[in-house]
Amino acid sequence: MSYKTTDALIRHLRDNGIAIQGAKQKQQLINTGYYHGYKGYRFFENAQRRLPFTSYDEVYATIQYDSDLKALLYGKMMFIETAVKNIALESILVNANSESIQAMYDKVVSGYNNAPATATPEQKRKLQQNKLNLQNTIQSNLAYSYKKNNPKITHFYNNVGYSDVPVWALFEIMTMGDFGYLLSCLTYDVRDDISRRLGLNVCCDTNRQLIYKYIYTLKDLRNAIAHNAVVFDTRFRNIDPTNAMKQCLKLEIGLPYVNFKTIGDYIVLMCYYMKLLKVSKTEINSFIREFEKITNHYRQAVNSAVAAIVIHPDLTARMNILKKQRI
Q: In the chain, where are the structural domains located?
C-alpha cells in the first residue's frame, strides 16, 4: 500500500482546492496530522456533509475551535461528574443504611424480588438481568483496579481490618458510563430521592429516568473530550433524547426546543447542572460568554459558507436566553 509524505499531502490538499503554503502551515499540518486533522475535520457530522474550505487556515481554525471547546468544557464536566456522583452516593448510603456494596444490591437496586407491584413477570426478569449485569460490571471494575494496583481498591483487599470495598470507594473508580448504568438500575424511590436532592424538574419525568438519561448524554461528550475526539459537530452523540429530557430543559431554561444536535444544547445542559449544583450566576455566565467568544473568533476565521454550517443560526439567541432568563 502506498503512502504520502507531508509534501505529497500538501500537493494533494492543493489539488482538492485547499490553499496551503509556507513553513508555518506545513508545521501545522505535521502537528495536527493529515488523518486526525484534515480528514477528521473536513466534514460536519458525517462524511457526506463536507465543509467548503478554501484554505488550510480555515481547516486549522476548525481544529483550533474544537480544541478550545474541549479546553473550556473539560473542567466543568469533571466538576459536574464528581458532584452528581457525590449526591447519588449519599442517597445510596442513606437508603441502604450501609456502605456495603452487597447492601446496595439488596436494598436499593431493582431486581426480581423488589420489582414494582405492577411489573409483569417479563419486566421482573429484565430488572433481574440488569441487576446481574450491574454486579458483573462492578466486579470487573474492582478486579481491574486490583490488578492495576489502584491504592483506592488494594487498601481494602490487602488489609485484614476490612472484609470488602465500600460503596464510596467503588464510586472513585467508576466511569461515567458505569455510573449512569448504576443509576438506571436503582429502585424508583432511590432515583426519585437522588433527583430531588439534585433539584431536577421531575414534573415531566414520570419514570424518574432523567437522572441517568442526562448522565448518559454528558458521558458521550465527556468521553469525546477525554479521548481527543471531535466535539464541535456533536458526532459523538449516541442518544435520541426522550420527551422528558427535552421538556425539562425547555421549561427550566425557557427554550423553544431542545434536540442535542448542536454543541449549544450541550452547553445548555451543562449550565442547567451547574445551576442545580449552586454554581454562581456570575461563573455560569462567564462560562457562556467564553463559549460565545471562541465561537465568534471561529466565525471570523472561516468563510461564511463554513460558518453557516458549523454555527447554528439561532445559537446567539439561545445563548441569550440562557444568560438572561432562567439561569
A: 19-33+52-326
